[in-house]
Amino acid sequence: MDIYFLGTGAGMPTTRRNVSSMALRLYEERGSFWMFDCGEGTQHQVLRSPLKLGKCEFIFITHLHGDHLFGLPGLLSSRAYQGGVTPLTVFGPKGLKKFIHTVFAVSETQLPYELRIKEIEPGIIWSDDQFTVTALPLEHRVLSYGYRVQEKDRPGKLKFELLQQKGIPPGPMYGKLKRGEDIELPNGELVFAASVVGAPIPGRSVAILGDTRPCDNIVRLARNVDLLVHEATFLEGKKENAHDFGHSTAKQAATAAKTAQAKKLALTHFSSRYKEDEVMEELLGEAREVFPNTVLADEHAIITTT
Ligand SMILES: [Zn+2]
Ligand SMILES: [Zn+2]
Fold first, then answer.
1. What is the C-alpha separation between 260 and 258, in angstroms, rounded?
2. How many CB atoms lie within 10 A of CB 285?
3. Helices (H) then strands (E): counts for the chain
4. Could you tell me which of 138, 176, 244, 252 has the fewest CB atoms within 10 Å of its CB?
5. Where is the catalytic site (predicted)?
6. 300 marked as part of a ligand binding site
7. Is 67 annotated as a binding residue?
8. Taking the mean position of all CA atoms in its chain, how far away is CA 26?
9. Ligand 2 centroid vs 142 CA: distance in angstroms?
10. Rounded-to-integer distance, Cα 96 and Cα 17, Å
């Protein structure tokens, strides 16, 4: 589980940064990736990355501002040319359906795969036996969601030495024990799963936020997460601008990470005015003063949950 950043700029693309998009890669967990936001030009960023659109399982749109959305129709169309035949679900705020249907109706676009569009309400928006995704509204100029992806706890590891001592050969009985089922050996001895399986492995979690100024739901979504991805449009000196436009400073993002007791913070969505490396260092420094385990996202950077 890691995040591949495709676009880390705010508002409009620059030669250094494209607009918002990232991929949560779950190759080991489920052989796919989930995209969060799809600003204009995202498909070009994908072409310059190791990502294959055919492996994109879900797209989560945080809000309907162009720098998070305008790349979607093109990317959905191109997916078909890149081996994308499996169904794809796009989640996002109300209005998403109208946007996609209008663009595809006007351009007479037909997709050869099934596209499902889910306009979400706050709460758990999707779940299976591996992951739960929760969405809560943030504070921006339009309805903007933050998402929390929570992996479920995984069964503990089998204690192989103990199993061998008991003379249990590898095979179907191992599977039963791992699933928590007790077994009876041919000699009548009972083997309890709890005695030969280690403690459950805690599921990992990430919170990925849309544009927002500081608000309580950030902390709710990011409580104890392994990784919080938070916008940091401005330096602290532009705090008033941040407030007026519904954005955050790097320090505000760090404060949220600290309050939520997140383990790691990745900052993204930087104002196009911040071009020089020194300014970005300053922005990082402001965040690290409050929350030391902070990193800056960059184009094509991979940020892990540890
Ligand atoms: Zn934005
Ligand atoms: Zn926005």
1. 5
2. 13
3. 12, 16
4. 244
5. 67 (proton acceptor)
6. no
7. yes
8. 10
9. 7
10. 25
Burial pattern 201-223, b for ≥16 Cβ within 10 A else e, equals eebbbbbbbbbbbbbebbbebbe
- Ligand 1 center to residue 234 CA distance, Å? 12
Nearest Cα to Cα of residue 111 among 139, 132, 81, 155: 81
User: Which residues, chain by chain, have CB under 5 Å from ion ligand 2?
Assistant: 65, 211
Six-digit token string for 14: 């620059």
Q: Is 68 marked as a binding-site residue?
A: yes
* pLDDT tens for each residue of the chain, 306 residues long: 999 999 999 999 999 999 999 999 999 999 999 999 999 999 999 999 999 999 999 999 999 999 999 999 999 999 988 877 899 999 999 999 999 999 999 999 999 999 999 999 999 999 999 999 999 999 999 999 999 999 999 889 999 999 988 888 888 889 899 888 999 988 889 999 999 999 989 999 999 999 999 999 999 999 999 999 999 999 999 999 999 999 999 999 999 999 999 999 999 999 999 999 999 999 999 999 999 999 999 999 999 998
Please list the active-site residues.
67
